[in-house]
Amino acid sequence: MQRRRITILAIAGLAAMCLLASFSSFGASGDKVKAKGMIVSRTGETLIVSGAQGKVTLVLTDDTTTKDDKGLFGLDKEEMSNVVLIPGLKVDVDGTSDDQGRVVAKTITVDGDDLETAEMIQSGLQPTAEQVDANVRAIGANRQDIAANKVQLAAQRENIETNQQNIAANKQQIEENIKDIEENTKRFMALSEYAVKGEATVKFQVGSSTISSKDQEQLKSLAQTATGFTGYIVEVTGYTDSTGSAAMNTKLSEDRAKAVVTYLAQQCNVPMRHIVAPGAMGEYGAAASNETKAGRGENRRVEVKVLVNKGIAGS
Predict the structure, then answer these.
(1) What is the domain extent for residue 31?
(2) What digits encode the pLDDT tens for the residues 110-119?
(3) Backbone dihedral angles phi then psi of residue 198, each to the nearest 5 degrees
(4) CA angle, 50 as apex, 23 and 102 as ends, to 5°?
(5) Domain total for the chain?
């Protein structure tokens, strides 16, 4: 029983020493004290500040002044009311300790920017009606932008599909052109094995594929010459001058060659199996300069040749 009483007395003594130590953490009563931290609670003139040294109790008096730390390096001080000392505000305190271990604040320095933040936290500010309305308008605008973007994406997809179709068509046309070139190349190579036994040049007016009366007689004479050879063929090649676009000239040279082939077949009785048209040359393969009127007249032509296999011709 006596041992238990001794233990209780020891614990009580230790508690008293701890309490005394907490009261004297800032030194003896009246000593100058500095404290720094954030206000975590306030009851009337009593504040609890939490900082690196732990929680400190501050006491406000009529002599306590509160200042806003302003200016370059905080050299300017603006005096403020103690009502600004609210939870969430960071403070620097100069004061003295009292006999209860508290700090009697003499000067409390705050940061105006930090005060604004603390006030917002304390008051729990909500967006104003104006802000809400602005947000609603912004959301509506964003929805319109999204809708416009969807329309643009759809149009772009359609353009992509169209481009893909065009690419496919162009690819097919290129393949056909390559095939034609290969066939014409083979035809020209085959014709190199033939000897020329007669030829005529049919001239045309600008932009025309009509054969003149003079050239019609020339074609009839050439056809009669051709029929005198065994295994003959008639080669027909159309040309233009450099007037107009390349595509237009290619088409015009083709029309001229076809006109000559048609005349030979229908008016000169040359069988179609004896006629070959290696190609429409357009403005390429000019016979004269396109810089002069006379030269352009020479280039608007169809060349017709009677060919006989060299083996048959004996040459």
Answers:
(1) 25-122
(2) 876 666 565 5
(3) -175, 150
(4) 25
(5) 2
